[in-house]
Amino acid sequence: xxxxxxxxxxxxxxxxxxxxxxxxxxxxxxxxxxxxxxxxxxxxxxxxxxxxxxxxxxxxxxxxxxxxxxxxxxxxxxxxxxxxxxxxxxxxxxxxxxxxxxxxxxxxxxxxxxxxxxxxxxxxxxxxxxxxxxxxxxxxxxxxxxxxxxxxxxxxxxxxxxxxxxxxxxxxxxxxxxxxxxxxxxxxxxxxxxxxxxxxxxxxxxxxxxxxxxxxxxxxxxxxxxxxxxxxxxxxxxxxxxxxxxxxxxxxxxxxxxxxxxxxxxxxxxxxxxxxxxxxxxxxxxxxxxxxxxxxxxxxxxxxxxxxxxxxxxxxxxxxxxxxxxxxxxxxxxxxxxxxxxxxxxxxxxxxxxxxxxxxxxxxxxxxxxxxxxxxxxxxxxxxxxxxxxxxxxxxxxxxxxxxxxxxxxxxxxxxxxxxxxxxxxxxxxxxxxxxxxxxxxxxxxxxxxxxxxxxxxxxxxxxxxxxxxxxxxxxxxxxxxxxxxxxxxxxxxxxxxxxxxxxxxxxxxxxxxxxxxxxxxxxxxxxxxxxxxxxxxxxxxxxxxxxxxxxxxxxxxxxxxxxxxxxxxxxxxxxxxxxxxxxxxxxxxxxxxxxxxxxxxxxxxxxxxxxxxxxxxxxxxxxxxxxxxxxxxxxxxxxxxxxxxxxxxxxxxxxxxxxxxxxxxxxxxxxxxxxxxxxxxxxxxxxxxxxxxxxxxxxxxxxxxxxxxxxxxxxxxxxxxxxxxxxxxxxxxxxxxxxxxxxxxxxxxxxxxxxxxxxxxxxxxxxxxxxxxxxxxxxxxxxxxxxxxxxxxxxxxxxxxxxxxxxxxxxxxxxxxxxxxxxxxxxxxxxxxxxxxxxxxxxxxxxxxxxxxxxxxxxxxxxxxxxxxxxxxxxxxxxxxxxxxxxxxxxxxxxxxxxxxxxxxxxxxxxxxxxxxxxxxxxxxxxxxxxxxxxxxxxxxxxxxxxxxxxxxxxxxxxxxxxxxxxxxxxxxxxx
RNA sequence: GCCCGGAUGGCGGAAUCGGUAGACGCGUUGGUCUCAAACACCAAUGGCCGCAAGGCUGUGCCGGUUCGAUCCCGGCUCCGGGUACCA
Length: 977
Fold this sequence. Notes:
Elements: H1 5-19, E1 32-37, H2 52-67, E2 71-73, H3 83-92, H4 96-112, H5 129-143, E3 145-148, E4 153-156, H6 158-167, H7 184-189, H8 192-200, E5 205-215, E6 220-222, E7 227-228, E8 231-232, E9 240-249, H9 255-261, H10 269-279, E10 282-291, E11 297-302, E12 313-316, H11 323-326, H12 332-344, H13 347-352, E13 360-367, E14 374-379, E15 391-394, H14 400-409, H15 445-458, E16 464-467, E17 473-474, E18 487-490, E19 493-496, E20 529-530, E21 533-534, H16 542-546, H17 549-552, H18 565-571, E22 574-579, H19 587-601, E23 610-615, E24 619-628, E25 634-636, H20 638-654, H21 662-671, E26 691-694, E27 704-707, E28 712-716, E29 721-722, E30 725-726, H22 728-734, E31 742-744, E32 753-757, H23 769-776, H24 778-787, E33 795-796, H25 802-814, H26 827-845, H27 849-863, H28 869-879, H29 884-893, H30 901-904, H31 910-913, E34 917-924, E35 927-935, H32 940-949, H33 951-957, E36 964-967, E37 973-976
Parallel strand pairs: 1-2, 1-22, 12-14, 22-23, 24-33, 25-31, 34-37
Antiparallel strand pairs: 3-4, 5-6, 5-9, 7-8, 9-17, 10-11, 10-13, 10-16, 12-15, 13-14, 18-19, 20-21, 24-25, 24-28, 24-32, 26-27, 29-30, 34-35, 36-37
Helix pairs in contact: 1-29, 3-4, 20-21, 23-24, 24-25, 24-27, 26-27, 26-28, 28-29
This protein binds one RNA strand of 87 nucleotides through helix 10, strand 11, strand 15, helix 14 and strand 33.
């Protein structure tokens, strides 16, 4: 019987569904394991062959862990709120709920075909009110919390409301938007609005007027991680800085915990580095500079206090609060003009113009606290208002930006560290000997920094301070398709809806676009009120719903809590999280923040949500090209094209300054099956005399000269190409304009060109998993995706190789086609089996799935024909995580009884596995010639004898007797002839 | 600019506490089967020289350590990712 995957796979899947095989429940008798995939946003395009890569890997691991006796939670759901559905709605009027539901159905269908072992009973959709009730709930809890920096945790805001009337905010060490200082009396004198403003300053979910990334085209604000190079990540629209009232999450309060928590995680170093960089901790000194003729002290932050003797001027951000006061009347006009110009420049322009040095003198001076010199104060937009104090001490000799500024405005440059030449460039390196620096002269930079920290504190000039780059997350979006923010405005005071009134459901609307004035769609909803008070009209951003979904899977139907105590204590955290690295600075930061907040609340019992994380690489497309002769419908095979191009170039090169030799070219073309007349353009000219002259880095004297491509490269659908050979008939049918295409073939074939590109519709290189399942079956697709290369690496999809895996499964299937024999296996067969078991298990544990697939293939090659139950049954179980359909089918045929690995696997006999031997590399006359494997137990004379008896030794010694032989156990054996 | 990662046949990739480089698969070539093609199966397959035995060469480039380097060290080149007036 042939391997009929089309019959087997649906039947096995039906069986799993019917028996609810993958339904999991809390089982205290068994150890838990939680394998999670980053849930997908169900886009309209459906899945391509790259999307399931991570799901396949996690499914293999899940099935493996189950076989090892773990109770594995392996859920799947959908990140259903998001911009694309809403953009689509604006264009077509289709309600996002409708398109989202359709897309989810399609995804579900595609996923089901691959034989995943998800517990679909636990499926969550972020747009489901029963789900987003808990997103809103968490937001309200954040609104009702502040961050205490003494106990390092979130605490109820009511504590502040109780403390302020008695103590004011004296002694309060809490994360806040702006530093406040008030007494109990001052607090008591405030009206309700003022009190609420003060509390807002401390809330973890707060509303504030801040600089935000405003995207005009999308009509909404964006978080920092949603902006790349001044453009929106989705759609690539320009983003500008604007001051707006927005809701924010005080993520920055958790910066230190987010940073230190990384050390406890089994994540890739590169991912941790990305997060560390994003959090951006820097330790430095807070320092005060006296302003000349004023009692003001200008605060700066520096990580290089060692260079303080080299400070020759100061720079403020144009937005710095003191700019007005520090500007002298003479400088007023110039400063105002500069500030106005800065405001106009968009974020994008500023990034583009980083090399342009601009700035204005304020007219004021400050005193360098160490040299006592009077130094000018400038403003410039290279100093950012949002980082540190918005003011810097400038050390032009040792900071490239300060250096450029000093050069532009002709300010003195005093070197204080030896090295470099300050006339040409600043010397930024953190090494060298201090000079011109009084007490720290002669010290190395690193020692000088430490010494200066002490000195600054001792003199009371400032103190050690830690700065983070991590910003609070802007949490409101002026969009429709997101969770409504459960806040209403009672007499203008933002108030959270009571928990029992949640969820606040998204009301139906008919118009999804933002109003011209930037008002969100919800602003148009009639009666968008709570008890007569207007409700917030912004909705939550994309990351809201994905921040705690892993918790909801533990207890998805609980109406009374996000997750029950029991479920949380059993499942605790995600043991293995699989997903793309693109979420490094978004979801993976927010989710960790969210989890830590819930931990502070006592809702969850673990500080970190994702213990181990694996980033699957991207599967790129492999595009194919055909080459069209311009203005014709003739296509030329690639090697003929290349040949013609190369030779035509040679002809042209030989007559660079004279007329092109058309006869010679005609000959070349004819040899490659082409006719010169095809190339004659409508204007009567031939394109051959167009030459490109290209700089040659290897030989700058002789540039590369190349004819312009005289053939047009066109992407061709990879589905009508096999092994780079074009199906010419299918090509003619592919698009009407190619119906009468003609081909110049080589070896009677049309060979296409190829390149690795992103998998996308426009490049016609999208391979659909459904089609692969149709042609080869899910098991083959699963194994092939793993076989393609290391999981974490990006690699191109190439349908060609899939045959090899399919062949393997068919050969495996064929082993079971006769009667299964109960005969004893031979030692060789047992060795092969045990080696394979060991290798595959190790590889699965190391996520090295490509080599474990290879191990299966080797196993089959070594086994040849084998019909013995004792070999075949364990193999089916070993294969089950990878190819569950065929494995279960065959497993059933062996009459198995085992349900987990340890029952099914033959008892480990070390003799089959352990190489109780040692490898001795043998060198003859100083050159290593061969390796000799010998038992560990031998004595040195025995080793000598064994080495000399080796046939390799005979060969290398060529009959000569060794003059000397050195044997050191465990080391190389040296033979001198 | 700074930080991190990588570079191995025609292709995807194996192998690194330093020890026969190229597992496995694809592709290619040859063969068997077939009227034929496809499928399947068998064999060969880094490059160069050689009828062969065999030799030389070979893991981006230059140099070093070592009996021995894809692996360790120093200096480059190129590619990928992160980040960027972050003081």
